């Protein structure tokens, strides 16, 4: 179990380090030419999105039931609402700042083992989901199939949450808990870097 935990930590840190080496934003424009596949790749190819989605899964797993499913369900549902706002052109200030701050805040919550009441955690996740959804939604009208694009980015987001939940399950052991909190710290550091670039 110990070696498995360390291997998982090494894999996540390597993945995060690669993302930090060449940070890419999933909402740089011009990527919504396709349908489902483009939408699916949209959150996965933007490291500012990836760290936040994984952090939501990590935090949910860390908090345990019912947060382990409530937070990862809340995020894509509210993100879809944000996507609709972006698609119809409703302005939302500070998109980049909100997206970058999500990784920092949720990463810190994991690092410091924050255990707020479940409604508070859900509201935090929902607020950040609006920003992520809006960023996706602004590019949706340019897609060949906007509905397929929307379905793709919701499913892509869900899979990233599952990655976070899977890694977060390591909290069942002492070493695993340390690894999960450490991953939260790495995510927070990357979020701080993205936030610095967004300001």
Automatic annotation (TrEMBL):
Organism of origin: Salipiger mangrovisoli
UniProt keyword list: Membrane, Signal, Transmembrane, Transmembrane helix
Transmembrane segments: 36-61, 68-88, 94-113, 118-135, 147-171, 178-198
Phylogenetic placement of the source organism: Bacteria, Pseudomonadati, Pseudomonadota, Alphaproteobacteria, Rhodobacterales
Signal peptide: 1-26
Keyword Transmembrane helix among UniProt keywords: yes
Protein name (Swiss-Prot/TrEMBL): HupE/UreJ family protein
Taxonomic superkingdom: Bacteria
């Amino acid at each position: 179990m110990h070696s498995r935990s360390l291997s998982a930590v090494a894999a996540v840190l390597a993945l995060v380090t690669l993302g930090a080496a060449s940070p890419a934003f999933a909402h740089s424009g011009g990527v919504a030419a396709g349908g489902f596949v483009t939408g699916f790749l949209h959150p996965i190819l933007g490291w500012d999105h990836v760290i936040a989605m994984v952090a939501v899964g990590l935090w949910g797993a860390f908090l345990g039931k019912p947060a382990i499913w409530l937070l990862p369900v809340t995020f894509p549902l509210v993100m879809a609402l944000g996507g609709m706002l972006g698609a119809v052109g409703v302005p939302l200030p500070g998109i980049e700042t909100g997206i970058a701050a999500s990784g920092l805040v949720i990463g810190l919550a994991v690092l410091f083992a924050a255990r707020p009441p479940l409604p508070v955690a859900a509201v935090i996740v929902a607020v950040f989901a609006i920003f992520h959804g809006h960023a996706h939604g602004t590019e949706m009208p340019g897609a060949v199939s906007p509905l397929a694009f929307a379905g793709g980015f919701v499913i892509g987001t869900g899979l990233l949450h599952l990655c976070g939940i899977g890694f977060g399950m390591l909290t069942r052991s002492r070493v695993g808990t340390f690894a999960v909190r450490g991953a939260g710290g790495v995510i927070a550091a990357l979020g701080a870097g993205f936030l610095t670039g967004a300001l």
